[in-house]
Design a protein that fits this description.
This protein is α/β, with parallel strands linked by helices. The chain contains 13 helices and ten strands. Helix 5 (164-169) links the parallel strand 7 and strand 8 (172-181). The radius of gyration is 20 Å and the shape is globular. The structure holds flavin mononucleotide (FMN). Residues 20-25, 47-48, 79, 107, 109-110, 149, 178, 209-212, 233-236 line the site of flavin mononucleotide (FMN).
């Protein structure tokens, strides 16, 4: 939704656009297919890998960021979640040394109750001492660049005030801020006034993330904060994969990707998951339905797709949902108002 207090500028500087990590959705396979079909995204952040106490996480946790699974794809920033700086440093150094990534992101924004209850993710935001001892241990001997993805706080939207001085003391290359509290999860609106306040207090490069669903709004944020280091987009880019390019181009015509383009993307993603996943229809349907949950906002007939139980049933329902978009019709996705 556009910010009514800001007039769009004729000269908008759009910083690099980052595809947000969405656990279960923006998998390595999704990212590769996405970048084959859509432009406008400069890099992606991978969904989090949890650190494990006193040892490296099992190798299977790293599958999503293995270089062989990310060839011909978006440049990637792996992400770790955890509350122990030593465990983080060991896992990050492994990812840097063995997998070749120059930057690792630390997630202190995840609002999932199972994560925050264990003092991880956004749960750490109410614990400045925990963040300080984490950073002290993590930064001593870290061989890669460190970036952070955070919220405003856990319970309160000003929890961050207690974190400014310590965040400013450590060599963090970028802080991505999703301006909600952990308690809010995804309720309410991303608070751009709080974002402005937090950004103004940090000495680090700052990226904005939250609730960008149309090009005008994406550009309004760039106009309001012309020195953003990047703009991260999650749900808006899954719902409308044409959004990043539209923000860059800045014309209303570029706003929504056509249904034919979405259908081609769908077909490639579906084929890729069918080729990659073992275990029959179940895992493939589960993965595809994760994406359809977002398309439910802009396409008709999605309820049936979400209820499909077999692959033939799914294909039939998909044909119906994407039917208006047979190539050449130029049909466009329409966003429901509200
Ligand atoms: C299903 C789901 C999974 C997510 N997984 C992650 C994750 O693994 N790491 C992370 O930093 N953020 C994660 N997020 C948060 C998003 O990266 C992003 O911060 C949030 O969706 C707000 O941005 P948006 O309004 O552009 O979607 C997830 C969000 C959703 C909805």
């Amino acid at each position: 939704m556009s910010d009514p207090t800001h007039c769009p500028s004729p000269v908008t500087r759009v910083p690099p656009i980052v595809l947000a990590p969405l656990q279960g959705v923006t998998t390595a396979l999704f990212r590769r297919v996405f970048q084959r079909h859509f432009s406008g995204v400069d890099r992606a952040m991978a969904p989090f890998i949890p650190t494990t106490t006193g040892r490296l996480p099992p190798l299977k946790y790293f599958r999503d960021v293995l270089p062989e699974n990310n060839r011909d794809s978006l440049p990637l920033i792996p992400q770790l979640i955890g509350k122990d700086g030593h465990d983080f440093r060991e896992a990050a150094n492994f990812i840097h040394d063995e997998l070749g990534y120059p930057e690792i992101n630390w997630n202190i924004g995840c609002p999932s109750p199972t994560v925050t209850a264990r003092g991880r993710g956004a749960g750490l935001l109410r614990n400045p001492e925990g963040i300080e001892s984490f950073l002290e241990a993590a930064c001593a001997g870290l061989r890669c660049r460190l970036s952070v993805k955070m919220r405003l706080g856990m319970e309160r939207d000003d929890d961050y005030l207690a974190l400014i001085d310590l965040l400013n003391r450590y060599p963090i290359v970028e802080i991505t801020i999703h301006p909600r509290t952990g308690r809010q999860q995804y309720e309410g609106r991303a608070d751009r006034e709080r974002f402005a306040d937090l950004k103004s207090r940090l000495r680090h490069p700052v990226a904005y993330n939250g609730d960008i669903v149309d090009a005008a709004d994406g550009r309004a944020i760039c106009d309001r904060f012309p020195d953003l280091s990047s703009l991260m987009i999650g749900r808006g880019a899954i719902t409308n994969p044409g959004l990043p390019a539209a923000i860059r181009v800045g014309t209303p015509e570029a706003e929504a990707c056509g249904v034919p383009a979405l259908a081609r993307f769908h077909d490639d993603l579906y084929d890729a998951y069918r080729g990659a996943l073992e275990g029959g229809a179940g895992p493939v349907l589960a993965k595809m339905k994760e994406v359809w949950n977002y398309w439910a906002a802009v396409l008709p007939e999605v309820r049936r797709v979400l209820k499909s139980r077999t692959l033939p049933e799914y294909e039939e329902n998909v044909a119906r949902a994407l039917g208006g978009g047979t190539p050449g019709t130029g049909a466009r996705m329409t966003r429901r108002v509200g």
